[in-house]
Amino acid sequence: MTQHVQMGDLAIDQILFDFMEKEALPVAGLNSKTYWEMFERIVKAFTEKNKQLLQQRQTFQTAMTTWHKEQVFDLEKYKQFLYEIGYLLPEVADFCIETAPVDAEIATIAGPQLVVPVRNARYSLNAANARWGSLYDALYGFNVISEQDGATKTAQYNPIRGQKVIAFAKQFLDENFALKIGSHVDAIRYFIEENKLVVILENGQTTTLAIEAQCVGFNGEPSALTELVLKRHQLHVIIQFDASHFIGRTDKAQVKDIILESAVTTIQDLEDSVAAVDAEEKVEGYRNWLGLMQGTLTDQFEKNGEILKRTLNPDRSYKNLIGDTVYLHGRSVMLLRNVGHLMTNPAILVNGEEIFEGILDILITPVLSKIDILGQNALKNSRTGSMYIVKPKMHGPDEVKFAVELFEQAEQLIGLPNKSLKIGIMDEERRTSVNLKACIAEAKDRIIFINTGFMDRTGDEIHTFMAAGPMVRKADIKQQKWFSAYENRNVAIGLACGLQGKAQIGKGMWPKPDQLFEMYQTKIEHPQAGASCAWVPSPSGAVIHAIHYYQCNVAQRQTELLQQKMLSLDDLLTPPLAKEVSWSAEEVNQELENNCQGILGYVVRWVDLGMGCSKVPDIHHVGLMEDRATLRISSQHIANWLHHGIVTADQISETLKRMAQIVDQQNAHDPKYKAMSENLANNIAFQAASDLIFKGEIQPSGYTEPLLHAARLKLKGDIAR
């Protein structure tokens, strides 16, 4: 039985109350009575507005569904209809954002962005520390380097593979830090002489960097370097030397490793990559964020029979070429993704009613960051007194305005400087995409981030056009007009609103964490498209993707893109409908099996194990990073095909049962996993997966959270009983 503490009209879950009273409020220097009194006033003042905004979403969807049922799609008539109902808004006047101050990692340094569930302390620490990563380790451990010709990944160091890694890394140096003469492959010594880098080649020639300014410093003695620090596109590379190291002693120049500045920023996530349905689970995330801000978060775990402990890395330092000490941030600058406006949470009740989780997050998470905002911690996150909060799943400018008003209230509640809470807008819902400039305008003095979220955006695209016709196959959605316009317009509008040099413009996640060679081949398209950050699923992925930011000058690319014409709103409004339904029975079955298997593989871990983000094997046993956004696509896609008779309810049910057996087999090695197929009729996770499809059409915006939260709360309640 959940215990609550009554504070005025607030009934606060004992777990949350104890955390706030014993850990959070004392660190922030806040008076408990005053805090909870103001908390209650804000919740009451904003709850009705929150409900109205959610009703507005439903009103728009109902009107659009009715329109599609009554006529064949015609773009001009459709656009006129959207303006008439207020879904599409008139263009706002030109403006430039005014956000200040902002850390350089947000404003001017382009690089990979890691996204991790903040409920997992180990992942959170690994991500924060992924600012710096070993190129040698990332290449050795993943498939960027092939295993042909004896270069297999073995438990013990394989020198054949090691030489391939070193060759790749030296080529990276040649491409980005070229020598005036020769190659880094031929270098036998690096040293500093008369405040300049000198490189001796194997043939006895003396050289230096082609661009001498790329050498910014060193560690060790000028004649006996332990580290050489280079810089390109505001990103640092550290060449480490050690003749006694098992790698260094085999290298001509005693290079033991090359460290790249990689995950410049990290999103610590309270939303799509976590399962947090009650106070117990919310507090796990809150406590970890507080530990990150205090610099005290640790995690201890066993790996290969050894007990390891993770802590936050300290800052780095080096000597510049005239001997002064220069400090480099040792950790990613961390953003915190709060939840959106939809869900409520039983962590706090007002007069017996759950409060909105988005309001809960904004009134609590800045309390946990106050020590960092005011610069009272040793291991700083922001050096400008800012907290960076990513707000997901907002539908249009009214919802952005609502979030900004809550930010203002939170600053007053917690005693923070005006506009210290900065906002990142996820451009992942259709009404935000089609009114993006107006959304940015509502937050023009707080915005530090816009990011395309293809997965959620696709889910909303399918749900919006549920009645218009059957969607193309899932793999073909990215080839449709709307997708190119969506990605292009996000960057173009962001640049037109002055985000260049002031805020991040981001792109989405790489979904295959083990397939880094494919990522290396393709993900350079994100910085080339003008994105100053793009999401990666792991520290090793951040290292490999960082190579692209050394290769591509994003600031220069953005300047070029400012001169190019933006793709049209008409393209963005063109739905990904199948022009004709000519798929074979086998093709339909493959699509259905793939979607059902992915849904079950994710949902069973979410509901049973509380894992909000999982590497889920697909039907071909390739591990894919799955979260609620990918689930939204798959469930909405089947619901759409069911609505239009491409598949039947019986087909879906039969496929779900077969796929449950496959998912059970794929998870058989996990001792925590409980098989679904033994008792499908009473398995909560299986029933939730089924409901996501069969009730998908009536879910608000096609979201998965309401059904997932209900299923996990039911499971936890059953266990408690």
UniProtKB/TrEMBL annotation:
Mg(2+) binds at residues 428, 456. Acetyl-CoA binds at residues 115, 122-123, 273, 310, 537. The modification Cysteine sulfenic acid (-SOH) is found at residue 613. The keyword Cytoplasm applies. Residues 157-231 form the Malate synthase G alpha-beta insertion domain. Residues 334-574 form the Malate synthase TIM barrel domain. The keyword Magnesium applies. Residues 18-69 form the Malate synthase N-terminal domain. Keywords: Cytoplasm, Glyoxylate bypass, Magnesium, Metal-binding, Oxidation, Transferase, Tricarboxylic acid cycle. Glyoxylate binds at residues 337, 428, 453-456. Its main location: cytoplasm. The active site is at residues 337, 627. It is found in: Cytoplasm. GO terms for cellular component: cytosol. Its cofactor is Mg(2+). GO terms for molecular function: magnesium ion binding; malate synthase activity. Residues 587-690 form the Malate synthase C-terminal domain. GO terms for biological process: glyoxylate catabolic process; glyoxylate cycle; tricarboxylic acid cycle. It is an enzyme of class 2 (transferase). Pathway: Carbohydrate metabolism; glyoxylate cycle; (S)-malate from isocitrate: step 2/2. It catalyses: glyoxylate + acetyl-CoA + H2O = (S)-malate + CoA + H(+). Belongs to the malate synthase family. GlcB subfamily. Involved in the glycolate utilization. Catalyzes the condensation and subsequent hydrolysis of acetyl-coenzyme A (acetyl-CoA) and glyoxylate to form malate and CoA. This is Malate synthase G. It comes from Acinetobacter boissieri. The gene is glcB.
